[in-house]
Amino acid sequence: MAALTPISRKPLSVVLPAVAIAGGFLGMFVGAGQGNVLLGILVGAVLMAGLAWLYVNVLDNERVARWITILGLAAIGFFFAGITGLIVGLLAGWFFAFFIFWLYEGRYRQKLLPYMTAGQVLWHFTFRVICGAIFVFLITPILVVLPLSFNAQDFFTFTPEMLRLDPEGYSLKHYRDFFTNNEWQRSFKNSLIIAPIATVISVSLGTLAAIGLSQSHVPGRRAIMGILISPMIVPLIISATGMFFFYSDIGRFMEGTLGMNKNFVGYVKVVLAHAVLGIPFVIITVTATLVGFDQSLTRAAANMGAGPVRTFFKIQMPLILPGVISGGLFAFITSFDEVVVVLFVGSASQKTLPWQMFTGLREQISPTILAVATILVVISIALLTTVELLRRRSERLRGLTPA
Questions:
Q1: What is the DSSP string of 314-357?
Q2: How far is residue 180's CA from residue 173's CA, in Å, rounded to a whole number?
Q3: What's the predicted TM-score (pTM) here?
Q4: Are residues 276 and 195 in the same domain?
Q5: pLDDT at 396 (0 to 100)
Q6: Which of 57, 87, 111 is the last residue of a domain?
Q7: Same domain, yes or no: 208 and 290
Q8: Which entry of 56, 149, 163, 190 is 20 to 30 Å from 257 by CA?
Q9: If residue 157 lies in a helix (H) or strand (E), which one and from where to where?
Q10: Residues 43-82: pLDDT tens digits?
């Protein structure tokens, strides 16, 4: 057996600044909660750097240091913020005890290539810290909304009971209001009517367009592609304004000339407008799937006597189905979450769930919005998980990843 590479301990000039920066970052959030960000950064940096110096020069025992840090920060957190501070202190204590010895003993190099320079190692971990910070920046607003939806009070902020994790500070009353309020239920049903129909239209037209644009003999493919995906690029307010004038003429024709019901015409206009917004997503995902499609399969089917329709449903569709479904899911999310176009094109009878949320924010500040937002987040996570599973299945079918 090959001998294990000995761990080289790092000097304090490397360990202390890194630990101080991490401590200052934690102190920034603690200080913000106490009303003094600068003091929190200074205290956090000095405290963590002092602990690192003490552990390295005096204690030099990771197990004991871990328990000291965990229990010490947990006690400090409990003193300032109760149960919530206790939990944060436990997590922070575990992290800093690990982080100090992870740096000091050079464990961060164990899984890296041995010939990497110090600058390359620094960039390796800096890049991951940047990615993590971006992830936190994107996900934090969602994580704030989720617990607020269970607020027992009609507030958009955390109450003292919630911060103490007191069960009396939490309630399902906003969810009950959503499922029992006629206005919310009517808008929810409208969304469930409009989004699926718009998705079917988007998938049908977008898939046909993508298959046509994948043919090399089609003239002006790039220009046509640019026009078809323009609803995704053009600012939504401009698209909504154009749709307002365009579908107003169509609505007058359907009502005046064809004698159709005004309410039905309103649904038709909103569905068509949302279909236009969803088609670019279908075109992009299906086109990406068709990149790895073997065109010789369709030629072989044609040589064996299969017509274009039969070839499409028997040969092409099974292979591009993951891309079609992914595009359909994006189109569904776009229609289900869209509010600007429906404000221009629809009427009160076609009020969708996002429109009702917008009204709740503008007119009555209803906390039920938080419950609805949480439900929409759960739906979006489920749909995006499905998209990821379909993407992996598509790669396996195309031989890009092993089965």
A1: IIIHHHHHHHHHHHHHHHHHHHHH--HHHHHH--GGG--HHHHH
A2: 10
A3: 0.73
A4: yes
A5: 73
A6: 111
A7: yes
A8: 190
A9: none
A10: 999 999 999 999 988 888 888 999 999 999 999 888 877 7
